[in-house]
Amino acid sequence: MKKIILLVIVLVGLEVAVKAQSSSKLRFYAGSGITLPIHSDHYDNFEGNWSPGYNINFGIGYVFSPVLTLSTTVDFSRVNFDENYFAGFYQLGNELIYENANLKSTWGGTASLRISPFPDRPIGIPFFKIGVGASQFREVSQTKVTSQNIGTEVTVSETFRNWGPTASLGAGFKFNLSNNLHLLAEVNYKAWFDANGNSPTQYLPIEIGIEF
Q: With contact defined as beta carbons under 8 Å apart, do 43 and 201 qualify?
């Protein structure tokens, strides 16, 4: 019951806030969801070694017409190392070396064009999105080295960061909660291109957000 009351208070507060800009064509957005790893040539077995993670994003848009909206967002996604699938061991002299990478994350900006071909539908307005941007992929890698002779263990952590352009395609539905408050549910396919000419790292953010 408390959660329902809190949700009502939040929705009413948002509605009051957006009345001040009811005639404006500016729109603000905040959302979150899960991110699914799909494929990568840059990172070994990206889809098998990492489990689904989460995403957070927020942005601002401009409504040109009921059909077209241009937006820019700041996006963050993280996928987690899956210990059940990824572990590497190899022998080097008298040392046993264990390697893993425990997380990958990406953050950056995206400019998107949202197209709503049927803007007059009363419930569940479908839309499509196409976007371009730039993102930084971050990987935290850990290496453990155990000496068989003296039994010591050393852990070395490294962080790798790479910038690259991104492209995205998406689709979803917009639900009108009021004239100026909307719920968006969407799926976006994103591709990140590194500087080495590899095929893009691909991941799938699934998001729910509020637009006002």
A: yes
Q: What is the CATH number of the domain that holds 198?
A: 2.40.160.20
Answer whether residue 205 is part of any domain.
yes
Q: What share of the chain is helix, strand, coil (3-state, %, to 5)?
A: 10, 65, 25
Instruction: Pick the range with the lowest mean pLDDT from 46-50, 184-188, 195-199.
Output: 46-50
- pTM more than 0.90: no
Residue 197 lies in a domain: yes
Range of lowest pLDDT (116-130, 145-159, 192-206): 145-159
**Sign of the dihedral defined by the CA atoms of residues 21, 26, 32, 33, in that order:** positive
Q: Which domain holds residue 185?
A: 25-211
Alpha helices (H) along the chain: 2-19, 46-49
Looking at per-residue pLDDT, the higher value among 179 and 65 belongs to 65
- Bridge partners for 173 per DSSP: 126, 185
9 lies in some domain:
no
Tell the residue number behind the tokens 């990206």, with chain if given: 46
Element (H, E) at 157: strand 153-176
Contacting residues for 72 by C-beta, under 8 A, at least 6 apart: 59, 60, 61, 109, 110, 111, 112
